[in-house]
Amino acid sequence: MTKPGILQVGPYPEWDQIPLDETFSVHRYFEAENKDAYLAEVGSSIRGIATRGELGASRAMIEACPNLEIISVYGVGYDAVDLAACRERGIRVTNTPDVLTKDVADLGVAMMLAQSRGMTGAESWVRDGSWAAKGLYPLKNRVWGKKAGVLGLGRIGFEVAKRLAGFDLSIAYSDVTAKDYAPDWTFIADPVELARQSDFLFVTLAASAETRHIVNREVIEAVGPEGMIINISRASNIDEEALLDALEAGRLGSAALDVFEGEPALNPRFLKLGNVLLQPHHASGTFETRKAMGQLVRDNLSAHFAGKDLLTPVL
Ligand code: 8YV
């Protein structure tokens, strides 16, 4: 039997690449020098796309594959997949929810702690001899007992809040509706009001056209000069220009960010700031989780081509 043709949009680790290559006829889009010419050449043989959360699949890519049946996303976020184009043609879409939730929450909380307690600066203080030369490291603000706001109490937001409760923070959250699985946490519908009542504002929303720049200038400034914004979702959820303006002017105290507009390139203004913690979009980046994500990507593709139910369908 001929193996179904798969367009692979970005690289995977070897432990995913080997079984993917064994099961499917894989076309490595990311290795092609001329992407348009490559799509024109292989497009008609493609029945599935294997992509990554941040890379997705554009309308142009989908249209270049007239026999496309399924897009399997290595990531929970599918905002970079053109869902309208998929709906028009009945193309199925899957993602990798659940398996990454706790790792993403762990990193978000670690980012808050690291940034609050100045851990990267403290590391340099030891390594560059400042400790010996200058003495005690400058004092930082306490974390426990403060107020956390969680913008988006989905799977990841819930795990963040659970962890924050363990650090003795009080918790409020914003979502479309109050959640019955969050009885001890305060529901505040308006993101500006949530921000006003938060020392730490966690952005944990699934990104979509509706949530674009939901963290706008008003929300950012409501967090204020003593507050911190932590983003482990997508850059598009925050108005990045407004964030940079507020960080530069001190209208926002600090930020801890795992995602950026145009990543992996980032706005050079970030690199000049001393009040940001910058991370390379690795919240799901543990061996255990990435292996589970890769497995789910393949299992969804295999289920589809075997005519079985998809494990984690989006569409
Ligand atoms: C990336 C992510 O997919 O889950 C998501 O939505 O953005 C991440 O897990 C990961 O960096 C692999 O590309």
Automatic annotation (TrEMBL):
The keyword NAD applies. It comes from the Bacteria. Keywords: NAD, Oxidoreductase. Residues 109-283 form the D-isomer specific 2-hydroxyacid dehydrogenase NAD-binding domain. Residues 33-314 form the D-isomer specific 2-hydroxyacid dehydrogenase catalytic domain. Gene3D superfamilies: NAD(P)-binding Rossmann-like Domain. Belongs to the D-isomer specific 2-hydroxyacid dehydrogenase family. This is 2-hydroxyacid dehydrogenase.
